[in-house]
Specification:
The protein is an alpha+beta fold. It contains 8 helices and 12 strands. 40% of the residues lie in helices and 21% in strands. The protein starts with 7 loop residues before the first helix and ends in an 8-residue tail after the last strand.
């Protein structure tokens, strides 16, 4: 695992101190069942270069190997589900890039061990695309990305066979979600310091959760998980 401190200057400027491996595993062991559930979603709001997310991914991929290691197509499908369940926001762009590379290398190493010569050549491209959508350079406090736009994450849902559904949501709306039926929502959007208004998505009442939840800002047609990078 990487050093806890990259430089004293980064600590002074950003308070950047990485969690060591022992603490990472101790904290994740508190939610062990969730770390081993392939579709259980995790969001790390200050993910650094991925200490927590890397360990979550390793645990999920160990489950994929145990359950689907004898079937290359199933291994790829459920490894995709595992990767699609992991999200991170990181303020420093070099850390965000390092996190994506780190997670990608973990998947590639596991893929080559599990699949050997029977893998689909599109698989790693799809994983790289998902990580580019799921690990973002931005500020989790303001919920804005590096271009000062609302952070938008993609939800990846396995539907049938190798088909997945992608839906994009604003992070701020998702965290504001589950507003009770008798509570009010902002109808006019977010007002910036300069007076500009960022319109909100529509909301709908969900009978199952008995709460209002935001509708996705974009929905994409069903597509093979191997082809998600071609969906835009």
């Amino acid at each position: 695992m990487a050093e806890q401190v990259k430089s004293k200057q980064r600590v002074a400027d950003h308070g950047e101190v990485f969690t060591n491996e022992r603490e990472v595993n101790a904290m994740l062991d508190m939610v062990k069942q969730e770390t081993e559930r392939l579709d259980s979603r995790f969001l790390e709001p200050a993910c650094g270069d991925g200490n927590f997310l890397a360990e979550i991914l390793r645990r999920k991929l160990a489950v994929v190997k145990q359950r689907y290691g004898k079937n290359p197509r199933d291994w790829e499908k459920y490894a995709f589900v595992a990767v699609g369940s992991i999200y991170g926001v990181e303020l420093l762009p070099d850390n965000a890039a390092d996190c994506r590379k780190r997670l990608l290398s973990i998947v590639e190493e596991a893929w080559r061990r599990a699949i050997k010569t029977d893998g689909d050549p599109r698989f790693m491209g799809a994983i790289s695309y998902v990580l580019a959508r799921n690990i973002l350079n931005g500020d989790a406090l303001t919920m804005l990305d590096a271009e000062d736009n609302p952070i938008i994450f993609s939800e990846w849902s396995l539907v049938t066979g190798d088909k997945v559904k992608r839906r994009d949501f604003r992070l701020d709306e998702m965290l504001e979600g589950n507003v009770k039926q008798n509570e009010s929502l902002s109808l006019f959007g977010d007002i910036a310091d300069n007076g500009d208004v960022s319109p909100r998505s529509e909301w709908e009442y969900d009978e199952e959760t008995q709460a209002f939840i935001p509708k996705p800002i974009t929905e994409y047609p069903l597509t093979s998980f191997y082809e998600v990078m071609n969906g835009e």
